[in-house]
Amino acid sequence: MSENLEHSFVKQLQENQNIIHKICRLYTNGDDAHKDLFQEITIQLWKAFPKFRGDSKFSTWAYRVALNTAITLYRKTKRSISTIEFEGRQHFTHDIEYNYEEEEQIKLMYKAVYQLNDIEKALVFMYLEDKDYTEIAETLGISEVNARVKMNRIKGKLKKILNPLGI
Amino acid sequence: MKELDLLKKDWQKNDNSFEQVSEIEIYKMIHKKSSSIVKWILVISILEVSIWTLISLAFNTDDYFKKLKHDELIQYFEVLTIFNYGVILVFIYLFYKNYILISTTASTKQLMKDILKTRKTVQYYVWYNLGMIVFSLIIGFVIAFSYNPDVSILKDKIANDGKIMAITIGILILTIAVFFGIFWLFYRLLYGILLKRLYANYKELKKIDL
């Protein structure tokens, strides 16, 4: 029985791994950190898998557990990130004055999102995944109104990161 | 926010840009079992050898051989001891090699092969140890009967009475059997459980590989 469970878990995770890669992309900076987070999320998913009853899609269940794992881990390492954050910000103040191609702008956006805090990243993730506010609110355990307000604040914050002088 | 929309567009077409993790890699992530089992085999074998060495240090056999008045036996015994440690060191080296192999393999087929190889190594190791125990006991009895003055009275009795001889041989065989049984059980507990888990992993891998 447990062997079948394992097999079905490995198969489903393999098929739905992009959702986890995406979360790793928002929460980590660099290949090694990406792989570490991927592995950590995989382990947490496997631990939680017996409780997954199949009343939602595997991908939906997986991204929720994965987000929680990322949020928890990110909290623990918050302090060590502050220096990178500072360098990143400096970088943007210099670069934003130029007119960038789309690709470059996307890169800057990823860097900007990386500077958000753990919960904000989770919100951005769900926003990018086109989740509605009901689901966002439910996943984060906040009210729908609160989720909307937060998302607006995040947009403001991102604008500020991209263009700190407000030009 | 225009940049966020741009990001969203990029995000949703981005699905295939990630380096895909294979089933076997996921399996390894949630288990890390095979390599940790093989690590335990290595650790336990080293601990086991250390314990035997400590025990043998506590019992000085030289005095016994001196009592027998056959100093040449000391030399034979030393040769045997060195040979035994040599063989065990080779086994520990093999365990170490298996551990390195298993913790670094990336393909299912290779991992399955390595698991089977590790199992074989452990089985040879256990059989070598059991064989060595039986061999040492037999040698011990032969030496006792040939040279130990304490046993000479018994030897005289055996020479005169077939019944006593039969009983003595029976007791010796029983002693060997009991020792063999105890150590067999010991190894079965120590390594058997680890081997069983390793084999369960093997079966699981086989299923994925199909």
Major beta sheet of chain A, specifics?
A: none
- As for the CATH topology of the largest domain in chain A, it is Arc Repressor Mutant, subunit A
Number of domain units of chain B: 1
Return the string of H and E elements of chain B. HHHHHHHH
Short description:
The complex is a heterodimer of chains A (167) and B (210). With 167 residues, chain A is mainly α.
Care to describe what's here?
The complex is a heterodimer of chains A (167) and B (210). Chain A contains 9 helices and no strands. Chain A has 167 residues and is an all-alpha fold. The N and C termini of chain A lie far apart (62 Å). Chain B has one domain (32-209). Chain B has 8 helices and no strands. With 210 residues, chain B is mainly α. The two termini of chain B are 49 Å apart. The chains are: A mainly alpha (167), B mainly alpha (210). Chain A: Keywords: Sigma factor, Transcription, Transcription regulation.
